[in-house]
Amino acid sequence: MSSLPFYDAVTQDFDDVNALIMRQLHSRVPLVEKIGHYIISAGGKRLRPLVVLLSARACGLEDARQHSLAAIIEFLHTATLLHDDVVDISDQRRGRSTANSLWGNAPSVLVGDFLYSRAFEMMVELGDMQIMRVLANATNVIAEGEVLQLSKVRDASTDEATYMEVIRSKTAMLFEASTHSAGLLAGAEAAQTEALRGYGNALGIAFQLVDDVLDYNGDAQAMGKNVGDDLAEGKPTLPLIYTMREGTAEQAALVRKAIQKGGIDDIQAIQQAVRECGGLEYTSRLAREQSEEAVRLLQSLPPSIYRDSLEQLARFAVERAY
């Protein structure tokens, strides 16, 4: 799956999950399969199914139900990506054209709906009401997070608490649901399941905080998106919020104007401002704290290569450059 070491413990599981995903993409409507295969084959890090597999294995689960759960999570995530790209009017994701730029908004939204409903069909087959409750709640919270973020676009008065609510809902929630449901599926002790839930939340927050740092100092080719994309869309992320709060009057005014206007006309000046006033370091520090919390929570699990891989993943979240 990847050269990154934390995938190694579940290589065969990943192959089984990928095969299951392709089988579950079947549809009597050719365009559904075409768009579904396109977006799924874009790959990415597949982190959410990864944490399902590692969490389930870490709790001793050995049967194929974890493959179903990992595929369900990937379908939910892919559905949100299809809808996100329509909402954000994005034309590139992971270094290639988005589905909406190739087929239009309507097919992209509808195939996203298909993936959501296929995921819930697969949940019914798992037959675990606790897991359905966790995943149904997660999809609800994610949708609320999307709407909250949309309501704050070009709003330069957005504060840190609101930003954190957005990323907990939009990004961390599905990581949390992945690890939480894996613990439930494995029949783990309540304390271990709760530790996994907390691990997923902390991991997701750490990933999003680092993404927001990389939006100002990352490598566009490695990330598969352009530096400054969030600013171009008028999204007030934490480095910008910190700069408006802690920077000089001139720095704050520069950022405030850029958020309200959207676009990246002043991207170089803004990159310099968020760096000089400490916005990137502040955001990175919060990410490291979340990573450390994730590692701490793993101590509730018995020692195994799977727990070690979850720890490596938590550290990778804040050390990566893409």
Quick synopsis:
With 322 residues, this protein is mainly α. The chain has helices at 11-24, 30-41, 47-58, 65-87, 99-103, 105-126, 129-152, 160-185, 190-217, 220-223, 229-232, 238-246, 249-261, 267-276, 279-297, 305-319; strands at residues 92-93, 96-97.
Structural notes for this entry:
The protein contains 16 helices and 2 strands. The protein has 322 residues and is mainly alpha-helical. It has one domain (5-319): Farnesyl Diphosphate Synthase (Orthogonal Bundle). The protein has a two-stranded antiparallel sheet. Strand 1 and strand 2 form a beta hairpin. The longest helix has 28 residues, at 190-217. Keywords: Magnesium, Metal-binding, Transferase. It catalyses: 5 isopentenyl diphosphate + (2E,6E)-farnesyl diphosphate = all-trans-octaprenyl diphosphate + 5 diphosphate.
Query: Which radius of gyration do the C-alpha atoms yield?
Result: 19 Å
CATH H-level name... which superfamily?
Farnesyl Diphosphate Synthase
Helical segment tally?
16
Uncertain spans: none
Helix content: over 70%
Keywords: Magnesium, Metal-binding, Transferase
Cofactor: Mg(2+)
EC number: 2.5.1.90
Protein name: Octaprenyl diphosphate synthase
What is the topology?
Layout: H1 11-24, H2 30-41, H3 47-58, H4 65-87, E1 92-93, E2 96-97, H5 99-103, H6 105-126, H7 129-152, H8 160-185, H9 190-217, H10 220-223, H11 229-232, H12 238-246, H13 249-261, H14 267-276, H15 279-297, H16 305-319
Antiparallel strand pairs: 1-2
Helix pairs in contact: 1-4, 2-6, 3-4, 3-8, 3-16, 4-6, 4-7, 4-8, 7-8, 8-9, 9-15, 9-16, 12-13, 12-15, 15-16
